[in-house]
Amino acid sequence: MVQTIFSDTIVALSTPPGAGALAVVRLSGPAAVAIMAAVFSKKSLAQAAGHTLHYGNLRDPASGEIIDEVVVALYRGPRSFTREDVVEISCHGSDYVVRQVLALLLRHGARLAEAGEFTKRAFLNGAMDLAQAEAVADLIAADSALSHKVALNQLRGGFSQELRDLRARLVQFAALLELELDFGEEDVEFADRTGLARLLAEVRGVVLGLLRSFELGNVIKNGITAVIAGRPNAGKSTLLNALLREERAIVSAIPGTTRDFIEDEVSIDGLRFRFVDTAGLRDNPADEVEAIGVQRTRQRVRQAAMLLYLFDLSEIAPAEVQAEMQELTSGLDLPVLAVGNKTDLASAKTIQAFEQAFSAGQVPLLLLAAGQNQGLEALQMALVAQVRGSALENTASATIVTNVRHARALETAAAHLAAVQTGLDTGRGTELLAADLRHALAALGEITGEISSEDLLTSIFTQFCIGK
Ligand code: GDP
Ligand code: ZN
């Protein structure tokens, strides 16, 4: 049975602010229907069934003034997003109309919702767990096919179910250990130690698998930063433009953080890449300004997830390319693609020499003519393969963790599970084992909100915008 626990009714604009054909204002709470009926031309609304639509006028009963023609969608709790009575008013999307509608509803007893309050109510009323509530925010923000898919899976509870299974398996053992503790000094062992060791290894394996998926999850959610570096005139800017042109329509420009860098985002095969065009690299920078540029490039490479080392095939020898790449990435564990540009200017012999020089090494070589839009597709495929190869292959679980909070909790759980494992191996006392197991359970429970504090909830839900 669902118990709704809030006595007040909240209201907010649920569509983005600004002019639009329509705007949706949402009410949720025990008085949602009564408040709406008081300002609606059709008084029968008060008795209407849930999941129905009603067309009529929104009217200020005090002045008799009609504010807008609206369509009202009515949901009766618990069959609604928040599990409370919910009314969604589709009105005309001008700021003026929306302000009037909100003011009218506030005068009739609604209260303006705080950021994320609708979703918070959905969580507290048991409509979803915490991981699912966070997926609502992710889904709203999702801007690539893959991030959308991951958020949807989390919203549907795929991740939560996996966590509940893990916890359920541990809880049984934890209970047996607690029972041993209740018996005090006597040396009773209810919990079979060999079975516990096996279970721990399994559960910890799953937790570590989920943690590894965070690497990919992070990439999916935040995009992967690929720095394009190389000597001046190698064709870096040309390549960046060529990569962007293909996707221009759905790409949003990010102004470079400094004038040395131009960055832009492109979605390739569902993955979001952020390409950074750097100032040219030169061995002996002629002046100070240029030296600073080179330094900054190095710094940018250190922060990147991937490096495209671009060179002009007709200007440089294979050994030089390899030396420059090496220098730029020394001490870094970073996937690198060597990209030979201007195939149109290079002789067959040159191309052959490069292919031979790179055939034995670890770094893939791609040859293209950015200025002629040639070979870009192979580069895009190599970029995607690089990301999927390094992250996806580690991701055995179907669930992909995208949330930093979840990753931290999983880390904590894994550490405590490891402590229990060590404790078992070294014959540590039941009390210590039980304590670590409790910590591991608590960490897993924090993800779905089975264990939560007001502080945690506040920090999560205030990241939402008003109306969600
Ligand atoms: P950056 O300094 O590395 O950013 O190099 P740019 O992108 O500014 O390019 C330097 C010069 O190389 C420009 O004149 C480009 O038109 C030219 N260029 C770039 N790509 C190609 C290519 O594939 N073939 C030829 N022939 N020229 C190119
Ligand atoms: Zn450039």
UniProtKB/TrEMBL annotation:
Its main location: cytoplasm. Its EC number is 3.6.-.-. Coiled coil: none annotated. CDD domains: trmE, TrmE_N. Binds 1 potassium ion per subunit. GTP binds at residues 233-238, 252-258, 277-280. This is tRNA modification GTPase MnmE. It comes from Hymenobacter monticola. The lineage of its organism: Bacteria, Pseudomonadati, Bacteroidota, Cytophagia, Cytophagales. The gene is mnmE.
